[in-house]
Design a protein that fits this description.
- By secondary structure, this protein is α+β, with helices and mostly antiparallel strands.
- It is 23% helix and 19% strand.
- It has 13 helices and 14 strands.
- A 6-stranded mixed sheet has the order 1-2-4-3-5-6. Strands 7-14-11-12 form a 4-stranded antiparallel sheet. A 4-stranded mixed sheet has the order 8-10-9-13, with no helix packed on it.
- The radius of gyration is 24 Å and the shape is globular.
Length: 429
């Protein structure tokens, strides 16, 4: 590879430094000034030995543990105090709720120096489309514990060019970090969580509850119908949210998806009957927006007000409770606005729109919102967002919640595995 790629012929003495081994169990008798890696990605479930999982500490999140988490923890053990580590990683770890433990384990061992988002999603890996970033760490020179600090953020283009964006901060309790976001010069993205002293609002304050679509088509094929029959409910797909932010109940029909669902019981507890907003649960950086929302048409609701409608699993439903302070039409416009999308992108490294993260998005004061018919709605919404000093509202009791997660992960990591499973789980690097 060295010869073909770089024209460098390695001598026999150099070849001895190259080892093919299982990184997760190999023991090295030295530490290094710099470790560079592109580890394998993929959820491991519980396929490794308890010892390998326990070594990851809080980075082992039971069934959600990813191979790259284990490689990262292992590599940090090989870095000298004051030394550096640069890894190519999926962006999901930066803010994803399941990676709270990993972020804490990183800060226990090292400082985050910078995070650079790679603009290119395709043609980076053979047969895969993946959002990735470069994580640069500096190993603690001594046992200092987790420390709140700032790190640089930037963007790398397809040609390797680098553009610095600014800086962000690392909360020490597993809260989300911030990703770099390419913005126009009119939008300023805060680089921290909202402060308790500031006045912020969430979807709950707006008068909405968040529900994820309960219908999983691959599991409930027998309940899907292409035409309405007695007892069926309308089934809304993610395509019901049109690119222009409007609602189309037959959006899924363009893909010949069944538009009706026959529930197993007459009264469906997860059916929605009142005013609501649909949000697509999956998105990516190739789309114009990361948040794609549409208000459910009042005429559609009137027709189905008795039994309501259901949604498939790639839809998030924001259901109005009683008399919401913000109308569904206005809420959809807010979520589709550039200001909201830029902020959400800073804490959303995954293609999946996290309902938990969306529920914590800091929103403007509802009493200061412009009318939905205002021709300058987008500009005024941007001004409203600028008054908010952070992206997400802090959790009311983050420490207790994280303690529960750690306890669950530690119990799961003690599961004994048979020899055959261990053998199949070996990974080489």
């Amino acid at each position: 590879m060295f010869y073909e790629e770089f024209g460098v012929a390695l001598g026999r003495e150099a070849r001895s430094t190259i080892r093919r081994a299982d990184t997760l169990i190999t023991k090295l008798d030295q530490r290094f000034d710099l470790v560079v890696g592109n580890p394998p990605y993929g959820r491991i479930g519980s396929r490794l030995t308890p010892a390998a999982l326990m070594a990851a500490g809080r980075a082992n999140n039971g069934g959600h543990t990813n191979f790259y988490s284990l490689f990262l923890m292992r590599a940090l053990d090989w870095v000298k105090p004051g030394g550096g580590l640069v890894f190519i990683l999926p962006t999901s770890f930066v803010a994803g709720p399941y990676f709270s433990g990993l972020r804490q384990e990183i800060l226990d061992r090292a400082d985050v120096v910078r995070i650079d988002l790679h603009e290119q999603r395709e043609n980076l890996f053979v047969g895969a489309v993946q959002d990735v970033c470069m994580l640069t760490l500096r190993r603690h020179s001594k046992a200092v514990g987790r420390a709140h600090h700032a790190y640089d953020i930037g963007i790398v283009d397809a040609f390797g060019g680098h553009k610095s964006i600014g800086f962000a901060e690392t909360p020490t309790n597993g809260e989300p970090w911030m990703l770099p976001v390419a913005t126009n010069r009119h939008i300023i993205i805060p680089t921290r969580l909202a402060q308790r002293a500031s006045r912020y609002f969430t979807l709950t304050d707006y008068g909405y509850r968040i529900r994820v679509g309960k219908v999983v088509p691959t599991r409930e094929r027998e309940s899907l119908r292409t035409t309405p029959t007695k007892g069926t409910l309308p089934l809304l797909w993610a395509s019901a949210v049109r690119p222009d932010g409007t609602f189309s109940a037959t959006g899924g029909g363009r893909s010949k998806n069944p538009l009706w669902f026959l529930p197993p019981v007459k009264d469906v507890p997860f059916a929605t009957k009142g005013p609501s907003v649909l949000v697509q649960r999956t998105s990516n950086r190739d789309q114009n927006r990361r948040l794609n929302a549409a208000p459910v048409c009042p005429k559609f609701l009137k027709v189905h007000r008795q039994h309501g409608f259901v949604a498939e699993n790639h839809v998030i439903i924001l259901e109005a409770l009683d008399d919401p302070r913000v109308s569904p039409a206005s809420l959809a416009q807010i979520l589709n606005s550039p200001a909201a999308n830029q902020r959400f992108s800073a804490v959303s490294g995954s293609f999946s729109v996290s309902a938990k993260i969306l529920g914590r998005l800091a929103l403007p004061d509802p009493d200061l919102l412009p009318l939905e018919t205002d021709k300058k709605f987008t500009a005024k919404i941007e001004a409203c967002f600028e008054a908010i000093d952070g992206v997400l509202v802090p959790l009311p009791n983050a420490h207790s919640a994280q303690h529960a997660v750690e306890k669950t992960c530690n119990l799961r990591s003690r599961v004994a595995l048979d020899d055959d499973t261990r053998l199949k789980a070996r990974r080489f690097a």
